[in-house]
């Protein structure tokens, strides 16, 4: 034994065959659903300049202040592993000038990939985790807000998850937040000494963060804080009314949570969360999708003064939910066909047939171990094929074999030649 540590890092996981099939199915359903709504894929780097996430305004959220993996590279550049997908997507949008007249408006993209946050690892909470997200850039229309929400809900529906709660709120425009900041600071001032150190520091920079504090005393203090809904500008009030009206039009049920602020500073106007109280989370509502509008972020990153809206879904948490709420979700079968062989002659033929049918459109495999036919059949069943066949000397001589359907006692005799030429014909 050496004392060198080769173990994977805390808060990271290996996703192995057996589980990967569930991931890939979720990813496929995501792609199909997002395509239906006009979204196309985007892949941005996993690391960016630190400022893409912190920006010169200084983001006061825990995610940016406390949870970022940021470091200096060998060239002395301040970098960060992305903690979320929106900032990098907006950076790419600006840098590639996707706001130009030749591009669709809104510019709708989705991403899926790893995010990094320095957190205390626990069930469904990791340091490298995965998000699937969508962004509709260059849009400022209540219709887009509702489309984005509808799309997220449709994605959950396609995964077989229906029992969800949608909460919405608005953080208003700049006029709203200036007025609300003032009202909130006025309210918080008398409690200043009782606030947590974080909240003391954030109160003047961004008092909204105090509303989102996890500290118990902070939470008691903010319980009676004024509501942002009383500070809405005319534009923001009208905008929010329109969003609610359109949600009603699409029969999307929602609750308004005027205390919701979300975990990043760039949010404006409509914000939302989709929550589940599935047993798999051990009681209470857990957020499985969070998103909102971020008018102002595009210009902060050097682009035009346009709005945008998007959401992110944590895939680890989503998989816990899917597997609990939709037990049939896990793919049941491995390859279409698996060959076991009874002897060397059969094994040779199986090897050739395998190659031909793979080239003719089916997924297939065979046993490669030199074991008795009984063990070969056991192995065949263990691989969960849809069909299997045992090939031996007799089958070689006759030029045909029995193709058995797993999970039923159905078998058919097929000619080797016909099966090689058109395997799908025999695999219903
Ligand atoms: P939470 O309040 O649970 O920490 P958050 O507000 O930090 O969530 P967002 O930044 O809105 O989360 O990210 C959206 C989703 O990403 C979350 O609902 C969650 O499913 C997932 N997520 C966030 N952090 C982690 C993590 N450390 N590990 C796994 N999933 C995560
Ligand atoms: Mg968090």
Automatic annotation (TrEMBL):
Region Disordered: start-end pairs: 409-428
Subcellular location: Cytoplasm
Record GO biological process: histidyl-tRNA aminoacylation
Enzyme class: ligase
One GO CC term, this protein: cytoplasm
Domain Aminoacyl-transfer RNA synthetases class-II family profile: 1-331
Similarity field: Belongs to the class-II aminoacyl-tRNA synthetase family.
Protein name, as recorded: Histidine--tRNA ligase
GO MF, one annotated term: transferase activity
Subunit structure: Homodimer.
């Amino acid at each position: 034994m050496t004392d060198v540590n080769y173990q994977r890092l805390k808060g990271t996981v290996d996703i192995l065959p057996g589980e990967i099939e569930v991931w890939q199915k979720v990813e496929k359903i995501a792609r199909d659903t997002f395509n239906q709504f006009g979204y196309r894929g985007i892949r941005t780097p996993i690391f960016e300049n630190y400022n893409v996430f912190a920006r010169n305004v200084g983001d006061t959220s825990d995610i940016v202040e406390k949870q970022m993996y940021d470091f200096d590279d060998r060239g002395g550049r301040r970098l960060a592993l992305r903690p979320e997908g929106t900032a990098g997507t907006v950076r790419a949008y600006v840098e590639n000038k996707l706001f130009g007249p030749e591009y669709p408006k809104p510019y709708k993209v989705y991403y899926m990939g790893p995010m990094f946050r320095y957190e205390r690892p626990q069930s469904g909470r990791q340091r490298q985790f995965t998000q699937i997200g969508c962004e509709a850039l260059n849009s400022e229309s209540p219709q887009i807000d509702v489309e984005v929400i509808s799309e997220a809900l449709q994605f959950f529906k396609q995964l077989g998850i229906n029992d969800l709660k949608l909460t919405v709120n608005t953080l208003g425009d700049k006029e709203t937040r200036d007025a609300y900041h003032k009202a909130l600071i006025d309210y918080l001032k008398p409690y200043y000494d009782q606030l947590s150190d974080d909240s003391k520091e954030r109160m003047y920079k961004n008092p909204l963060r105090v509303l989102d504090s996890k500290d118990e005393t902070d939470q008691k203090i903010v319980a009676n804080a004024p509501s942002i809904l009383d500070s809405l500008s005319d534009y923001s009030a009208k905008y929010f009314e329109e969003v609610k009206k359109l949600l009603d039009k699409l029969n999307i049920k929602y609750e308004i949570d005027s205390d919701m602020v979300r975990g990043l500073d760039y949010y404006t106007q409509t914000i939302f969360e989709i929550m589940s109280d599935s047993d798999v989370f051990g009681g209470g509502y857990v957020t499985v999708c969070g998103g909102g509008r971020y008018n102002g972020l595009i210009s902060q990153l050097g682009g035009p003064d346009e709005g945008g809206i998007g959401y992110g879904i944590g895939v680890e948490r989503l998989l816990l939910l899917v597997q609990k709420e939709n037990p049939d979700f896990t793919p049941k079968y491995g390859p279409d066909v698996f060959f076991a062989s009874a002897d060397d002659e059969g094994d040779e033929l199986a090897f050739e047939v395998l190659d031909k049918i793979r080239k003719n459109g089916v997924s297939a495999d065979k046993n490669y171990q030199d074991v008795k036919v009984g063990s070969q059949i056991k192995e065949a069943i263990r691989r969960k094929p849809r069909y299997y066949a045992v090939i031996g000397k007799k089958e070689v001589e006759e030029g045909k074999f029995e193709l058995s359907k797993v999970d039923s006692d159905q078998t058919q005799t097929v000619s080797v030649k016909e099966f090689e030429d058109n395997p799908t014909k025999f695999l219903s």
